[in-house]
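CORE FACILITY INTAKE
Project code: CF-77B
Contact: R.S. (postdoc)
Sample description: multi-component assembly, two entities in total
Requested service: structural model of the whole complex
Turnaround: standard
Below are the sequence entries exactly as provided by the requester. Do not edit them.
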Amino acid sequence: MLCLLVATAIALIAVRGLLASIMLTSVYGLLSASFFVTMDAVDVAFTEAAVGAGVSPLLLLLTVAIVGRREAASNARRLVVPLLLVTVTGALLIIGTLDMPSFGSPDAPAQTHVAPRYLQQSGDEIGIPNVVTSVLASYRAYDTLGEVLVIFTAGVAVLLALAPAGQGGSARAEPPAPEHLAPHTILQVVSKLLIPFMLLFAFYVQFHGEYGPGGGFQAGVIFASGIILYGLLYGLPTVCRVIPPPVVEVLAAVGALIYGLTGVLSLLAGKNFLDYSALAADPVTGQHIGIIAIELGVGIAVAAVIITIYYAFAGRLHTRED
Amino acid sequence: MDVFSYFNYWVVVVLMMLGFFIVIARGNLVKKLIGLNIFQTSVFILYISAGKVMGGAAPILADGVELYSNPLPHVLILTAIVVGIATTSVGLALVVRIHAAYGTVEEADILEQDATC
């Protein structure tokens, strides 16, 4: 698996032309997702499959559609210094790995610090089987709140960078222009069958995240990719009629707010910020309510931000074509 | 100690250096971002490898399972992936703006235009 990953990365260096590079990026994402499954990191694999193999190549494709797919040949003389630099750094890092604990050993420092506590206590304290969800949404809820805010800020940054002049900072798509692309009938019919199930699956992932792999981050990305697929096949104006851009922009803020408000509620109930035990008479029930609430906030925020980013890029492409 | 106990870490180093090479040796800005992506994934692989316990199960509590892999790196990396795509898209947005301003996304051409101003 890892050798395949290295082979894909080498191919990425060898290949010239951005379109082929993007296809290889997608392959690379899928391969690393399968690698994460073999490493027992099912939640991570879920996210990587949706992001690395799905959303990230889509955004790259949209960018390449705007800036052109040609890549200039690089000067052979300019390659010597980078090659030297990379070899030296790599050699030093490999010497560094010799001090690491051997792979998979149960008594490595990483395995003996705080992880045993999570694995032994979370069943009683939080009451849900997926330890990754308990750590993400309860023990380390502060970190996750920070990450949701980073994602929200990134969405705002993309909007600011790509908004057409004179539209008040919002990357609203222009009024529907007639589609001049020939419709791909087969793709449209197949996607019409698939998209409802993708969205349904996103909801399953969202609400089953406490018991199996899944949660707000994965659900948000899967939901957004369903919408983006619809947009790619039916054109931006159609998808903008289904989900208007202003609604998505507001939803991104609402998602982050739900997360923050859950924290404030537990603060008002007399406990620490984001300590959900305060939300119900029974601490474990409180944890359940809190985790469901913040996972919902995360899901809404992530889905809305990614759809917003897609609208911003696609809107840019649209105005360029006119 | 056998050689294979470090194989994962070495692959991480190789991938990281391949990504690094693309970032510094290629002039195309989109390609640079793809290189950054590979670099980023190599860090994910490092963390997930460090969290793996031989013979462990995925960290979802079940009856009759005693040994689990470490859930903490999973949490860090799963959020890092989503943050990563959000920041990558900011980079892509900047590339689009650079293209609008300079008409090219090749580093050499951009520097040349800057020099003549």
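Facility notes:
- Residues 11 and 24 of chain A are 8 Å apart (CA to CA).
- Chain A touches chain B through 102 residues (CB under 8 Å).
Invoice: internal transfer
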